[in-house]
Amino acid sequence: MSRKKVLLVGETWVTSATHFKGFDQFGSVTFHSGAQGLLAALADTEFEITHLPAHQAVEDFPFTAEGLSAYDAVLLSDIGANSLLLHPDVWLNGKTVANRLALLRDWTAQGGALAMFGGYLSFQGIDGKARWHRTPVEQALPVECLPYDDRIEIPEGFRPEIEPAYQGHAMFSDITGEWPVLLGINEVIVKPGSEVLARLPKAAGGHPLLVTGRYQQGRTLVWTSDISPHWLPQSFMDWPGYKQLLINMLSWMTR
Q1: Does a structural domain hold residue 18?
Q2: Which of 16, 43, 49, 84 is the most exposed place for a label (fewest CB within 10 A)?
Q3: Which stretches make up the Putative glutamine amidotransferase domain (predicted)?
Q4: Helix (H) or strand (E) holding 65
Q5: What's the domain count of the chain?
Q6: How far apart are the first and last CA of the chain?
């Protein structure tokens, strides 16, 4: 049986640091990826993951429906809207290109599967810089983004709570025992008709954590926390339920 093809977009960053040692100073640049845990977890499953790092997505994310049709699902993770809006032809040369946010929305409407995972540059993000609010992608998602910084930091941690009505949902198949703690989320507004499968405890605000929905013929999903540290600690990644949850998410999206 052929594997289902999934495009993971984002979840990388570059850090520039200045080191001061007495009178002297020097700089360094490092590349980081938060996708390794997800890629490792899904390596031996029915899903074939293509990872498009954030800096490459600016130029290499598909510009046509045919390009997107190569995938059964697209996952946006910790990448802002500008990365898909401001291709170098637009930003540097003032030329026109296809609107890839509208393309992604329309692909979803025609039966694609779209997910967004949380992070500092997901939903509206830190200082509102992710900028997914009032975009075509937001139209397809099962939630609305806030128009400002939407981060909720919970340094003491919280354990996800499955909504009682969805205890037997396929999203939680083969996941047993107590869930590990998470350290934060992006706050969102659930659209009418969407299903909140899991949320934060009431003491932590009761905010949505895992939401599913439909956009015309397509399936959509959001996980408002991260898929790697810092909001999703290493203890969560080491938990057997992490892999199973990812499998269940993709299975629901692509069935």
Answers
A1: no
A2: 16
A3: 5-254
A4: helix 65-68
A5: 1
A6: 14
Dihedral of alpha carbons 136, 80, 226, 104, sign:
positive
Write out the two tokens for 33: 């990826």
Domain CATH number, residue 217: 3.40.50.880
**Is 24 domain-assigned?**
no
The per-residue pLDDT string of the chain (255 residues; one tens digit each, 9 = 90 and over) reads 689 999 999 999 999 999 999 999 999 999 999 999 999 999 999 999 999 999 999 999 999 999 999 999 999 999 999 999 999 999 999 999 999 999 999 999 999 999 999 999 999 999 999 999 999 999 999 999 999 999 999 999 999 999 999 999 999 999 999 999 999 999 999 999 999 999 999 999 999 999 999 999 999 999 999 999 999 999 999 999 999 999 999 999 999
Tokens, residue 86: 């401001």
Determine the pLDDT at residue 237.
Answer: 98
Distance of alpha carbon 90 from alpha carbon 86, whole angstroms: 6
From CA 36, how far away is CA 237, in angstroms rounded?
10
Indicate the SS3 state at residue 135. coil
Q: Is 182 exposed, middle or buried (0-12, 13-18, 19+ CB in 10 A)?
A: buried
Q: How far is CA 134 from the centre of its chain?
A: 17
H or E segment and range at residue 240: helix 240-254
Distance CA 5, CA 120 (A): 26
In a domain, 88, yes or no: yes
Token pair of 182 as six digits: 């998470």
In a domain, 245, yes or no: yes
Separation between Cα atoms, residue 181 and residue 183, nearest integer Å? 7
Domain that holds residue 169: 4-11+31-254
Model-level pTM? Answer: 0.97
